[in-house]
Design a protein that fits this description.
Layout lengths: L5 E4 L15 E4 L6 E2 L1 H13 L7 H4 L7 H12 L5 H19 L1 E2 L1 H12 L4 E5 L3 H10 L8 E4 L11 H9 L25
Parallel strand pairs: 1-2, 2-5, 5-6
Antiparallel strand pairs: 3-4
Helix pairs in contact: 1-4, 3-4, 4-6
Length: about 200
């Protein structure tokens, strides 16, 4: 594994014991890493399409897992021949998702321990998410963990969304982390990894 100054957590199943002095900051993915959101995302897509007479199964949803919301909505619009423009579809999906997520989102139990440990180490933490950043902030607030993070960056703020690494690189830039300095980096769960990291 090539060393760099960011510890990326994007789907790790357990806390990896890196040398504390080597980790300078931590960037978390949100959905499926910090929070269990799969069912809420599926249900928001199902409702969005049901309103247009389209049946959308969990099997259908698998094709969109790991994609940011902009790319997912574009594909849904194309695949199902929807007349609505992509932005209005995205706004509607976000509204449905927000209503569901604020009622039923849950933090994966081990992650509270992880957050508290990183806070003890005085490590700055940020969220890099394919979801809407405002909704992400509301969810984190409702779960009592928003103040662990210095910022939330959405893939809508970069040219290429997930699974490309742009959102993680942009978040690192905003955190003023020099990627050229040696430290540890890991991006588990990411299909496309930056040239400076290898898992």
């Amino acid at each position: 594994m090539i060393a760099t100054p960011i510890a990326f957590l994007a789907g790790e199943t357990e806390l990896r014991r890196e040398k504390p002095e080597l980790v300078k900051a931590v960037i978390f993915d949100l959905d499926g890493t910090l929070i269990d959101s799969e069912e809420n995302h599926y249900e928001s897509d199902r409702v969005l399409l049901a309103r247009r007479g389209v049946t959308f199964s969990r099997e259908d949803k698998k094709a969109f897992v790991g994609k940011d919301i902009t790319e997912m909505v574009r594909r849904i619009k194309a695949n199902y021949g929807l007349a609505s423009d992509a932005q209005s579809l995205m706004d509607e999906k976000n509204a449905i998702y927000r209503s569901l997520a604020l009622k039923s989102s849950r933090l994966y139990p081990p992650m509270k321990v992880v957050l508290e440990e990183f806070r003890k180490r005085k490590l700055p933490m940020a969220i890099a998410t394919g979801s809407n950043s405002s909704i992400a902030g509301e969810i984190l607030t409702s779960l009592g963990v928003r103040d662990f993070f210095t910022m939330i960056v959405s893939s809508s703020e970069v040219k290429k969304g997930k699974p490309e690494p742009d959102i993680f690189l942009e978040t690192a830039r905003r955190m003023a982390i020099d990627l050229r300095k040696p430290s540890s980096s890991r991006i588990p769960g990411s299909a496309s990894k930056p040239p400076f990291a290898r898992a």
